[in-house]
């Protein structure tokens, strides 16, 4: 994970920011956010953090749709070889539907 963190930022100050590490945000800081779609992959090392974030958003009163796609890895919708999997197709369709609703498109 350290290598991945370093690709994102090497600054400890940046890593402490809630915009970089949203789980660091307090419930009060999350309150009032728009409805959220949190998509997690079953075989993702960050799955638990994603699910904890969804839970924290709910605790803040945010409307959350959280889903875990089974048998799939991190960033699955962006991996070319997984583009045509049922999970990728479903996640993209879900994201489009969510954004269309939230943005009133």
Automatic annotation (TrEMBL):
SUPFAM superfamilies: alpha/beta-Hydrolases. The keyword Repeat does not apply. InterPro entries: AB_hydrolase_3 (IPR013094), AB_hydrolase_fold (IPR029058), GDXG_lipolytic_enzyme (IPR050300). GO terms for molecular function: hydrolase activity. It holds the Pfam family Abhydrolase_3. Keywords: Hydrolase. Residues 1-77 form the Alpha/beta hydrolase fold-3 domain. The keyword Disulfide bond does not apply. It comes from the Bacteria. PANTHER family: AB HYDROLASE SUPERFAMILY PROTEIN C4A8.06C, ALPHA_BETA HYDROLASE FOLD-3 DOMAIN-CONTAINING PROTEIN-RELATED. This is Alpha/beta hydrolase fold-3 domain-containing protein. It comes from Gordonia jinhuaensis.
């Amino acid at each position: 994970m350290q290598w991945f963190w370093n690709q994102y930022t090497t600054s400890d100050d940046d890593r402490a920011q809630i915009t970089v590490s949203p789980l660091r945000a307090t419930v009060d800081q999350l309150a009032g956010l728009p409805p959220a779609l949190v998509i997690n992959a079953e075989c993702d090392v960050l799955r638990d953090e994603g699910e904890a974030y969804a839970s924290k958003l709910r605790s803040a009163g945010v409307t959350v749709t959280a889903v875990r796609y089974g048998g799939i890895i991190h960033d699955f919708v962006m991996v070319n070889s997984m583009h045509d999997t049922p999970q990728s197709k479903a996640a993209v369709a879900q994201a489009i539907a969510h954004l269309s609703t939230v943005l009133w498109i």
